[in-house]
Amino acid sequence: MAKHDRTGRQHRQWLEEARKYQKRGDLEGMLSALLRLPPPLREELLPSGAVLFRQAVREQHRRGSWGTLGTQAVRADAEPGLVERGATPEEALATYWPLVWAAGRARDWERARRLWQPLTGPARAHAPLLAGAMDGWLSSEGSPAPELIAPALEHLTPVDALLGIEPPRQHVSLPPPRSLEEVEGALLALCALEPFPVFASRAEAWARAAPAEVARAVWELAGQLAARELWLRAAEGKGHAPLAEPASLLARAVREGGASEALSAPTLQALRVVAAGLARPVVSRLEDAEPLCTLAQAAALQPSAQPWVVQAVSGLRFEGAALPRALGLYQELLARSTNALLWARAFLAWCEQNPEAPNAPGWLQEGLGRLLSTEASSLLSWLGGAVPSERMELIECVASTCAPALVESWVDACWEGANEELRRALSEAIVILLGRSRLKQGEGQLERLLRGVGNLQDMERMLREVEGAVEQVYSSMKLTGDGLRIWRRFAPRVLTYRVEFLEEAVRHASSDAEAWEATVRYLEAHPGNTGHIEALRTMEVLEREVLARRILERWLEGRAANVLALAEAAVAAGRMNTPCKYLHPVLEAFMRALAEQLPAPHAPVVEQAQALAHKHGFRLRKRGASRKKKAASTKGHRASRSKKKSGSSPSKAVSPEDGEESS
Amino acid sequence: MTPEEPFAVLGLEPTMDPLAVKSAYFAALSRHPPHQDMEGFQRLRRAYEALTRPGGLAAAYLTSPVDVQKLAREARERFDAPLEKAAVVARAERTRAETVAQWVERCSRMSWDEALRAFAR
């Protein structure tokens, strides 16, 4: 009983609403309320509603509003009174006609056929051709036999397109394949009828919308057709640019289609086709790099082809505009393959592209980590076989941008098997690591300093003052923390390879004896003049006067009374701008030895050393000339005597330190 | 200047076989001994080094000339006939679909009276 009341109340409410909208002339509002009512309750408003409905259908048909008419078709199907109540038979038929088309265009075939029923009789009676075509169209659900439609279409008067009322020719898209059996026909037809870019995008859309099995088949055939297009374009010989489109589709087909075996050979061939004729082995243009990298990435998806792709890519060099694309390729290949050659090539490319970047990206550092744990020897092989400039570039870049622990492991792994030349190169990595540690240390100190700054002006002033000082202090700073740990770990191995390491060893030595021991090790590895001079200069910088004197003594001892050796030492010291306090003893030793061995040996180096000695005020002293006599001499005398030829008269070397009079 | 194609210098078809490269090098060396043909020997040496450096053989194989005419010919042989057949079928289907579309477009815009008049017997 209560339910009955509720329904009655609801019906009254809808009826009220329908009346309200009817008074306002609002067909939409009225119909939505009216059609909810049971048919007997609609009677009150149906006549006036039907008038409004027919008017609306006429207007919407005139405007070609097929979507709205589709809704009206649903309403007329539900309540035929909307079409027929109060209308003449002709008026009712004229209203059904557009509703049939609206339902058909919406592919609502059942409804279209129902709405066509009232029209069938008159159509068959007055226009059988129309009736036949309509029956064919509706019963075949939009795909009638051409012989049913064509005669009817021909029956229509041709319309002059110039009048602007001829509807444009309909372009019909090919239907996508719905099953495996349909794939070949659909895709071949698409390829045959559409331009390649349309084929590529439509095939991709089909594959994305299809079930997995059909999608795989679509990708496989699309890939093969892309390869065909690539061969045809390459055969035309119009350069690399036209190859990008088919290469891209082929690569997508391999990737999206699950790297089908059927596409393996065409992909490798395509890779060779796009790579052939490059100014090998350097790729610098983006239009060359793009298809090459795209196909290489796709080819590497095949496990059987991957090693070859990795090797081939490692043998190429990318530069300039091609670098960003190449880095993408390297990253993807390194994620699949651990290969020292590829990793080194990738790192060098990254360095070239990012010369100022402080940290290497994760994928390169992870690649190094993987190589260290699985193929450390291949890293050494690469370093051993690389051209020196590339080797140094890689060492510098890795040491500057990778995590210190990783660099340490890398140097460790390569050190044992490395030859002397490679060890020297690797020691550069330690120099850089120590520098990084110092820089970090310096930055920490600067940060602590700046924490106390009150305002921006203070900060600017302080930065100006501090910047220069930090630069100076930086180089003489003692290592702490990580830097010290790195130094202690590598010092025994690297000490003899660079004078910087001698400096470090002396700076961190706990006693003079330890410092001297390190110096001797260095000098034994560098027994030549350059080694001694560098060691001397290092002690000068570190203000280790005693050690410097010991180095000097050791240097001269080794060349005692050997005019040629001393001449070479003097010339080398002069060339390397050795401070006078170390140069003069060498010159003095040389002049003494020369005085003992007159006549002087004829060698250019002896003449150069003599000239240098002369420049520094050293002269050959006559044998027997007493110190006393010399003490009485003056500068003027010295000048006048120096003009005289010493000739065959026996002489002795005299140093400027002995007194001005000595020369 | 484009460097010479190393396989061609050694008189070898592009290959991934290092032994074939080695054999071809020594065979070519006997034709261009350094004491008789220094220039020829240097060309051989350059080509051999390019092929034997790490990754060099794979890169050379990758960048070696490919007979694209042959590939194009094979692709035509395989696909042209099926493509032509599919095109014929698809064109017929397209014509049919276009005819229907034209029919729908023209008739649906007519009024009932116009349609009856247009198709009156």
Describe it.
The complex is a heterodimer of chains A (663) and B (121). Chain A is mainly alpha-helical and 663 residues long. Among the domains of chain A are: 143 residues, Alpha Horseshoe (Serine Threonine Protein Phosphatase 5, Tetratricopeptide repeat), CATH 1.25.40; 139 residues; 160 residues, no CATH class. Helices cover 73% and strands 2% of the residues of chain A. In chain A, the strands form two sheets. Chain A has a two-stranded parallel ribbon. The N and C termini of chain A lie far apart (141 Å). The C terminus of chain A is likely disordered. Chain B is an all-alpha fold and 121 residues long. Chain B folds into two domains: 58 residues, Orthogonal Bundle (Helix Hairpins); 51 residues. Chain B is built from six helices and no strands. Chain B is rod-shaped. The termini of chain B are far apart. In chain B, 31% of the residues are buried. The mean pLDDT of chain B is 88. Classes of the chains: A mainly alpha (663), B mainly alpha (121). Chains A and B meet through α7, α8, α9, α10 and α11 of A and α4, α5 and α6 of B.
Condensed summary:
The complex is a heterodimer of chains A (663) and B (121). By secondary structure, chain A is an all-alpha fold.
